[in-house]
Specification:
The protein is an alpha/beta fold and 269 residues long. The longest helix has 16 residues, at 234-249. The protein has helices at 14-23, 40-51, 61-67, 88-95, 113-126, 143-148, 164-173, 211-216, 234-249, and strands at residues 9-12, 28-34, 55-59, 76-80, 103-107, 130-134, 157-161, 177-181, 187-188, 198-202, 219-222, 252-254, 257-259.
């Protein structure tokens, strides 16, 4: 239970509420389900909530429509604390203790919650550890983003940053190599070394990566394209880059052999 003075938001949709219950990061006041909901998935959410000693209230469709402002809630919603964001200081401190190469995602100027949600899910599947997002002029970790990620956001480590260029400089001081994804980049994605300590920067839908951030990156990558269209959706481009890095960072079978790709240290001096 949460105190009455604590900030709350309405999380909605079967997957976001279910994954938030599994993750155990948010404080739940109660779970609301539409009375006589047709889908068994709604009852699955209610059952897990009861197992965790969280109040379940059955309500009518109109109440959930009003609480979620007409969003597609699938007959399930919950009164919860806001998504818990990570502190940058803690993440930077943890870098000094790492025993394996880190893998991070930095987002710039992303405004569409659907793109953000899709990238969160892809990042989680590709093994990304932390996701950094700007504090201003960009979408944040809202319930609609959790919906777009099909609940993957509830398991992600997301950090708000006030200055992306400053963050990149701090990461570089810790030995992390920073690769920006840019259509005008000078290095083809598939020619880049992405197996060590790495942060990938993905720009927004309209503005891409800002000039200062672009200059602060170690190198800029482009995804080769053929045909009449030469640009990709931000979340698709980001997904391609993250999975190329994932490919390089995992054991890849080649003609019956197992080739293990390990992280490497480079001297920045």
């Amino acid at each position: 239970m949460s105190s009455g003075s604590e900030k709350q938001e309405i999380l909605y949709g079967v997957h976001p509420v279910l994954e938030a219950l599994k993750a155990g990061r948010r404080r739940f006041e109660k779970v609301l389900a539409v009375s006589g909901a047709k889908k068994a998935r709604a009852e699955k959410v209610a059952r897990l909530a009861r197992e965790k000693h969280i109040e379940v209230e059955y309500a009518d469709q109109k109440l959930l429509d009003r609480l979620t402002k007409g969003a597609r809630h699938q007959g399930v919603a919950a009164r919860v604390s806001p998504f818990p964001l990570q502190k940058m200081s803690r993440i930077l401190e943890e870098l000094d203790k790492r025993t394996s190469p880190c893998f991070m995602l930095i987002l710039e100027n992303m405004e569409d919650p659907r793109n953000f949600g899709a990238l969160i899910r892809t990042a989680l599947c590709a093994g990304v550890g932390e996701i950094f997002i700007p504090k201003d002029r960009a979408v944040s970790a809202t319930p609609s983003v959790s919906v777009s990620s099909a609940g993957a956001m509830e398991h992600s480590d997301i950090c708000l940053v006030t200055n992306t260029a400053s963050l990149i400089r701090s990461l570089k001081e810790k030995g992390v190599w920073v690769a920006g994804l840019d259509a005008q980049g000078s290095t083809r994605l598939y020619d880049a070394e992405l197996s060590g300590d790495l942060a990938v920067v993905v720009g927004g839908e309209h503005k891409g990566i800002r000039p200062l951030v672009r200059r602060t990156c170690d190198y800029l990558l482009y995804i080769p394209a053929t045909g009449r269209v030469n640009s990709l959706n931000a979340s698709v481009a980001g997904g391609i880059a993250l999975y190329e890095a994932h490919r390089q960072r995992t054991i890849v079978p080649v003609h019956g052999l197992q080739l293990s790709v390990h992280g490497r240290k480079k001297n920045r001096d």
